[in-house]
Amino acid sequence: MIIRHIPMKKTRLSSFSGLVQYLCNQQNKQERVGKIRLSNCNSLDPIWAVQEVLATQAKNQRAIGDKTYHMLISFAPGENPSAQVLKEIEDTVALSIGFKEHQRISVVHHDTDNLHIHVAINKIHPQTFNMIEPFRAYKIFSEIASKLEIELGLQITNHQTRKNRSENLADDMEHHSGIESLINWMKRSCKEKIEAAISWKEIHTILAGHGLMIRIKANGFVFCDAQGLIVKASSISRTFSKKNRLYTN
């Protein structure tokens, strides 16, 4: 199983409605489009679900960049998981990159030898209206794919050899400047939320939802991720200088 983020390079596809229209188009191939699934939408009709998503995206006028995330989950030739397994995989992967509660529309395609699912995800949270930007998603995808292959009895894939050029470039960049990457990602994804938190319990919950922790180090605080990257908390927000906050578990 291969899981990938597909960048929105074409303006038409960068809009949620344009992407869903493309995914649901048979393109003169009788069996191209299979099951369409709506998640976290009130409507049961894709057309109206798209309008829900656009209304949610309109609530966030601060976000810079694309508000739509296009994810592809592809299976080995001849592999045809059941609808329940496909649902479990989609839900697990969405959770792993912070999109559990986000509106999304997934479409199963049968137009190649590899069954695959396209997932259009609204990066704007439907309640908080904050935009989530997954950090180093390709690493998470590799790990979660390996885990699901074993748990669900799917064909094992060598994920280490399947990185594309941009992913290898990201590896090189993060080797030299991973700290800067984490700082920028946190500022985009959770700075506003942790600054608005009114208790340490709330801060811990917000950070955990982004795969992060906060620790005391020397005379201040640091944020750290599961891969061991550490950044000064004050580099994310000046409210985290130790004189401004009393740390409690």
Automatic annotation (TrEMBL):
Residues 22-154 form the MobA/VirD2-like nuclease domain. InterPro entries: Endonuclease_MobA/VirD2, TraI/MobA_relaxases, TraI_M. Residues 167-244 form the TraI-like middle domain. It comes from the Bacteria. It holds the Pfam family Relaxase. NCBIfam families: TraI_MobP_relax. This is Uncharacterized protein. It comes from Legionella parisiensis.
